[in-house]
Design goal:
Elements: E1 2-6, E2 13-18, E3 34-42, H1 46-57, E4 61-69, H2 78-91, E5 98-103, H3 105-117, E6 123-128, H4 131-137, E7 142-147, E8 150-157, E9 162-166, H5 175-192, H6 194-208, H7 212-232, H8 247-257, H9 264-281, H10 287-299, H11 311-318, E10 330-336, E11 339-344, H12 347-357
Parallel strand pairs: 2-9, 3-4, 3-5, 5-6
Antiparallel strand pairs: 1-2, 7-8, 10-11
Helix pairs in contact: 2-3, 4-5, 4-7, 5-6, 5-7, 5-9, 6-7, 8-9, 8-11, 9-10, 9-12, 11-12
The structure holds nicotinamide-adenine-dinucleotide and glycine (GLY).
């Protein structure tokens, strides 16, 4: 078991990473006691891990209740959020109640947002069980739900008390979900760490085979990079936007196809291929480096060609992106491997990339 800190002053917290943590009460030591704890999970993850978590929490809390939400991105909505509020109120949850988000990014985002809003803010702990959630969504305090008109449009910044990432849980993850998580691992190379990009290239076969030591390094390094970025820019005044490499295109794919059609990680993978092309098209990045990014995404078994929504529709959807200013889209681009910038690009250059990279 190892841990490191997300440094945010009074809101600092630890990410605890290891194998078999859901059997180790030690991983939860230091999380305060509560008369009521509520595990928020879904119908897929509950039968796999809810009993283990509840047992591990043991007598730390007076009473532990489990809420099982419907599974899927299409349920990351206001009605699902309201189910959590309904149950919290009927349980008599108060300001000292602690929520545990047990699941992937959808559960983490909904639970974190519920925690941010309930009685104007209660504590929560992230227990991520997907690769994507362990390397990205459980860290950094972005919480929220989708709106039919845009991805993650309704939300709040609310940091967890702790993140407990048990690598064992990744063994039951369906192959497609696992690969989707690799997209967010790959992301950290181009934006922040060229040697890490090289390591992923040379380790991709081990990662695809879920080799536990390769996974441990991938999760650790991803979390270290994310913690460093969030520690400098918690509320995305500037730097944090680089974590959205590929996401402007990705959010358009997800909203354009209907949430849940492509997995978030798949959309991010394809979005990174588009953003790499765009970085080359505007003259920031050598084409050979853009190709290197695209090749790695492809080797991870992730999509590098986008759905044929039409360039006009992509542009329309991308204007709803949270990075847009006054309707002008801003893209995360790579200006050298291991470093990203955020800037606007002429529509014509974006359209040319979309036409070349879509079916
Ligand atoms: P997800 O939460 O939908 O989980 C993927 C699937 O795997 C689900 O069906 C889930 O029930 C199942 N599952 C989870 N753990 C499992 C396990 N151990 N074994 C078997 N099945 C398991 O998807 P995700 O990829 O984890 O997260 C995507 C979401 O995260 C998106 O909504 C995205 O917007 C969000 N996100 C948020 C942030 C952030 O900073 N808050 C960052 C990145 C992504
Ligand atoms: N996943 C982007 C961020 O946390 O800022």
């Amino acid at each position: 078991m190892e841990s490191f800190t997300v440094g945010l002053g009074s809101r600092s917290y630890d990410i605890v990473l290891g194998i078999g943590l859901l059997d180790q009460p030690r991983a939860f030591e230091g999380v305060r006691d509560a008369a009521l704890a509520v595990v928020v999970t879904n119908t897929t993850v509950a039968p796999l891990y809810a009993a283990e978590l509840v047992q591990c929490l043991g007598r730390r809390h007076g009473r532990i209740h489990t809420i099982r939400l419907p599974d899927g991105e299409s349920h990351k909505t206001w009605p699902t959020l309201n189910l959590v509020f309904d149950e919290l109120l009927s349980l008599g949850a108060d300001r000292k109640t602690i929520l545990y988000a047990l699941g992937g990014g959808v559960i983490g985002d909904i639970t974190g947002f519920a925690a941010a809003c309930y009685m104007r803010g209660i504590d929560f702990v992230q227990v991520p069980t997907t690769l994507l959630a362990q390397v990205d969504s459980s860290v950094g305090g972005k919480t929220g739900i989708n709106h039919p008109r845009g991805k993650n449009m309704i939300g709040a910044f609310h940091q967890p008390l702790r993140v407990i990432a048990d690598l064992d849980t990744l063994r039951t993850l369906p192959e497609r979900e696992y690969r989707a998580g690799l997209a967010e691992v790959i992301k950290y190379g181009p934006i922040a760490d060229a040697p890490f990009l090289g390591w992923i290239e040379s380790s991709i076969e081990r990662l695809l085979a879920r080799d536990v030591e390769a996974l441990r390094h991938a999760v650790r390094r991803s979390c270290e990079i994310k913690a460093a970025v969030v520690g400098q820019d918690e509320r995305e005044a500037g730097l944090r936007a680089i974590l959205n490499f590929g996401h402007t295109f990705a959010h358009a794919i997800e909203a354009g196809l209907g949430f849940g059609e492509w997995l978030h990680g798949e959309a991010v993978a394809c979005g990174m291929a588009m953003a790499a092309d765009l970085s080359a098209a505007v003259g920031l990045l050598p084409a050979s480096d853009a190709d290197r990014i695209v090749r790695l995404i492809d080797r991870a078994g992730l999509p590098v060609r986008g759905p044929a929504l039409g360039a006009g529709r992509y542009l329309q959807l991308m204007r709803v992106d949270k990075k847009a200013e006054g309707g002008a889209i801003r893209f995360v681009l790579i200006d050298r491997l291991g470093h990203a910038v955020v800037r606007g690009v002429d529509d014509a250059q974006v359209e040319a990339v979309l036409e070349a990279r879509c079916d």
